């Protein structure tokens, strides 16, 4: 059922048809982009589960046969993400390998990665945020180095991605936030650091873990509204002034008092 739901929204992006959904737009935009790049024209109706795709090019969106494509590719990335995270935390190769093999043979992970769903996209950004956070912590002995900035910025990008797919991504924001608070508290108690250096640490985290994710999150909605400029099933959720900007709407180009 969910594949029918989100596949239809991918088609809406390809056709630039406005719709409304409870989830933020990033996951559906990426699904639509994957379909567009793989040659899908957005004409499949996605009316009910089990409908045959016939001549429609679904491979790029669903990744059933080519696991390198989109959802299946993102799902396969969870294995190296988990391996690297556990290896960094435990410094144990057997533990990291065990974690990787558990995910490789996990039926749920394999199944979720086969279909047009938000779950593999969400898990990609969730685990990407955790891996980046762990890698950034490992660079604590060389703050403000290129690698430290890279992993800190990538953590912020991953946080924006997780929030931009589903609001449940806020849980990884909480995890990174608690880790950051602990890190800053530890730095504040280090008497060998001046307040100026501590201020630089605080500013770096504000920029990379608050400002950057919020800017990217808002940019997703800017793209969302710029792409969906045609009248569709989501018009009625918005004001008359907004509907007047949608091509094909009865109020299109009508002057609406504020």
From TrEMBL:
One of its GO terms (cellular component) is membrane. One of its GO terms (biological process) is protein O-linked glycosylation. It is a multi-pass membrane protein. This is Protein O-mannosyl-transferase 2. One of its GO terms (molecular function) is mannosyltransferase activity. Pathway: Protein modification; protein glycosylation. The chain crosses the membrane at residues 63-83, 95-115, 149-182, 202-228. The gene is Pomt2.
């Amino acid at each position: 059922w969910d594949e029918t739901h989100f596949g239809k929204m991918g088609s809406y992006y390809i056709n630039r048809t406005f719709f409304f959904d409870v989830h933020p737009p990033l996951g559906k935009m990426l699904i639509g982009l994957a379909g567009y790049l793989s040659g899908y024209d957005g004409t499949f109706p996605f009316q009910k589960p089990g409908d045959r795709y016939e001549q429609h090019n679904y491979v790029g969106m669903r990744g059933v046969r080519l696991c390198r494509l989109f959802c299946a590719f993102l799902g396969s990335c969870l294995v190296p993400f988990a391996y690297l995270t556990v290896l960094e935390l435990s410094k144990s190769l057997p533990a990291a390998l065990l974690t990787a093999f558990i995910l490789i043979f996990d039926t749920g992970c394999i199944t979720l990665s086969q279909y047009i769903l938000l779950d593999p996209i969400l898990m990609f950004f969730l685990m990407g945020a955790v891996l980046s956070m762990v890698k950034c912590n490992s660079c604590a002995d060389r703050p403000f180095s290129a690698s430290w900035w890279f992993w800190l910025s990538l953590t912020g990008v991953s946080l924006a991605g997780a929030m931009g797919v589903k609001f449940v991504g806020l849980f990884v924001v909480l995890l990174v936030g608690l880790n950051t608070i602990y890190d800053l508290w530890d730095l504040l108690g280090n008497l060998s650091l001046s307040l100026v250096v501590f201020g630089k640490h605080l500013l770096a985290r504000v920029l990379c873990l608050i400002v950057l994710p919020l800017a990217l999150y808002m940019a997703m909605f800017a793209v969302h509204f710029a792409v969906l400029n045609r009248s569709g099933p989501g018009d009625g959720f918005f004001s008359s002034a907004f509907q007047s900007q949608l091509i094909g709407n009865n109020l299109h180009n009508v002057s609406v008092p504020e």
